[in-house]
Amino acid sequence: MIKKEDILVLDTETTGFGPSAEILQLSIVNGLGEIVMNEYFRPAHATCWPGAEAVNHISPAMVAGKPLISERKLDIEKILRAAKIISGYNLPYDQKMLIQNGIYIPSRSKVRYLDLMKPFAKTYGEPSTRYPGKYKYQKLITCAKYYGYSEEGWHDSLADTKATLYCFWKMVEDGSICIE
Hints:
By secondary structure, the protein is α/β, with parallel strands linked by helices.
């Protein structure tokens, strides 16, 4: 049986979406809802990110005195290695951002990765207009509202991890995902 402490939910906020995007905020909570990490990072290369800032409200001034993510690399990797399950909403994006920012993520043989976006799309049931026979991916806020989550603060990675954890347990409860 997996202990709640061995489940991690993570989220990132970044300077953008492309191959040069850098992590500005990384939040990780465990299955009990305890904050394992919630840090802001100064990007190594980007000096401004107006498009991302309009969404995540993280300004260059907010991260000016913060460490580079490379300075916390070993701590982050140790946290991730200790998990049995790592979950998130659109988790492949966060995994890609971690790797792109020099963070080693454990292999699938060591950790189970559980992205909530795909199973929630099926639960929600809105047909995809692009892919016949598939379901349209929904935003985290749609998933959270579907399950009755009413907190605010979207696009802050800590707020998003808390919402994702709430959805995680609701999806375990309704059978949308299985953790055993």
